[in-house]
Write a structure and sequence with these properties.
Length: about 280
């Protein structure tokens, strides 16, 4: 007679409540009320960081902080102009005063201006403005953060560049050069800090076209409103348009201790666009 085997199915493993990937850290995110900044702040907050959101424009501050707080994330907003030295000192001081430390800086604030018709028509004031926010801002931020982090055991700095750091685009002289500068500056500062034994890692994330209101508006101008999204997708071999979260997840990895050996690196988040 056949023996009837009864199998006892092991109970589903209980998923232990794990600490967040950046639990206990304090992160300052510049341009924190913008499309990508919001996503970064949310991801870091959901993984346990306390978040200092900064932006030059306070208009969206209440909504941006409420979005984080509704998820139980401790956050404050600081109005902050990344081009201004005194403003940087105040923002870092506010983070340290409120949360006692600064472990992660995400230099995300950045601008683009309508591209000139051709290179020789690039206006010097536009060049200066873009350099001032995109490159001076990153330099000042790194300098202020390193000064604090080196005395408190270290930290992680993530600079948001762009695929424009790698390739020429029509009308992209100022924007592309500013992001190329961010790419180089990341390595200069990272190597110096490593040699000094500061335990501060500095890396860059270079996104392709990411679906934000700004990208959609400029693509609508370039391709027409009804064709904009598809045209942007077609640029990428992956045939997809990046979302702010695609950038946020790369930042999360670099902010966390999972990336302890990743330093002075470029992480390109581009759906293979640069390789095509
Ligand atoms: N959206 C894309 O497709 C894309 C692609 C590649 C790289 N990037 C980069 O990602 C970063 C975020 O871009 P986004 O698409 O979220 O743009 P966004 O305009 O939505 O956000 C940028 C934020 O920076 C703030 N800001 C501007 N000047 C500032 C200053 N002087 N001081 C402080 N804050 C200032 C703005 O108020 C805004 O909230 C930028 O560095 C941008 O160059 C974006």
């Amino acid at each position: 007679m056949a023996t009837l085997h009864t199998h006892t199915i092991a109970p589903a493993p209980v998923r232990k409540e794990r600490p967040g990937r950046v639990a206990g850290k304090v992160a300052l995110v510049t341009g924190g009320t913008g499309g990508i900044g919001q996503a970064i702040a949310l991801r870091l907050g959901q993984e346990g960081a306390r978040v200092v959101l900064t932006d030059i424009n306070p208009a969206l501050a209440a909504a941006a902080t409420a979005a984080l707080q509704s998820q139980g994330i401790e956050t404050i907003f600081v109005q902050h102009d990344v081009c201004d030295e005194a403003s940087w000192k105040a923002a870092v001081a506010a983070a340290c005063e409120r949360f006692g430390q600064l472990d992660v800086l995400v230099n995300n604030a950045g601008i683009a201006l309508p591209p000139p018709e051709s290179f020789e028509l690039t206006r010097f004031e536009d060049w200066r403005k873009i350099m001032s926010v995109n490159l001076d801002g990153v330099f000042l931020g790194m300098r202020e953060a390193v000064a604090v982090m080196k005395d408190s055991g270290g930290g992680s700095i993530v600079n948001i560049g762009s695929i424009a750091a790698y390739v020429g685009t029509p009308g992209g002289a100022a924007y592309g050069s500013s992001k190329g500068g961010v790419r180089s500056l990341t390595k200069q500062a990272a190597v110096m800090c490593a040699r000094k034994g500061y335990n501060i890692r500095i890396n860059a994330v270079h996104p392709c076209y990411i679906r934000t209101p700004l990208t959609e508006a400029s693509a609508a101008k370039r391709f027409g409103a009804d064709k904009a999204v598809q045209a942007l997708k077609d640029l990428h071999p992956f045939q997809c348009l990046g979302e702010p979260d695609d950038v946020a997840y790369a930042v999360l990895f670099l902010a966390s201790d999972e990336s302890r050996l990743v330093n002075a690196a470029d992480i390109v988040v581009d759906g293979a666009l640069l390789s095509s």
